[in-house]
């Protein structure tokens, strides 16, 4: 397990001074990068592999403010045929602020085709921790919106150079920023989300455009992004009321 300590800065915060959703995901990413450093990162690089996120679940108890010190604890806690699962706990003082769980693929660095868990380098498997962090474990699943709608168009976002990561596609955190902005365009209030679930379905490359559409279901909002040919590239659920994503 790795603990990553940082201070929420203004660049990670919203206008009201609270940590933003993309800011929180950046802290999670920094903690994961620290946890993967050393033999694991060396083995992944030596085998010409890369990590690719596929699904994410987040529940927020409270949002820390700018200037506040926080600790993000993380570890990879499970694996199945294709997926590795990483748990996150964001805390400050007593009790957690947020819990997260993310599913990752280990993929070929050139083709981005998944590598089965059984063929992962030994050092990657040796870094596994069998128990989840904290007393609760979040469920991670692939989102499917069959039979739902109609969705309302909420805007088009273009993948510019600032959104592209080392894998040559839009970084997963950028989608959270786009989706939250799309939902807020349709919401009457500007309160912060308490629950997020996302599934990344297809890579988006530099210059491609993503059309986002949303659907309100009470305090829960569904969002999906589509490429120019109509294929979905991302789906998400944002909730602004109580949720029960625990298993």
Automatic annotation (TrEMBL):
Instruction: State one Pfam family annotation.
Output: Acyl-ACP_TE
**Biological process annotations from GO:** fatty acid biosynthetic process
Indicate the segments forming the Acyl-ACP thioesterase-like C-terminal domain, all copies. 164-211
Q: Which GO terms describe its molecular function?
A: thiolester hydrolase activity
Enumerate the SUPFAM superfamilies for this protein.
Thioesterase/thiol ester dehydrase-isomerase (SSF54637)
Q: Which residue intervals define the domain Acyl-ACP thioesterase N-terminal hotdog in the entry?
A: 11-119
Q: State what protein this is by name.
A: Acyl-ACP thioesterase
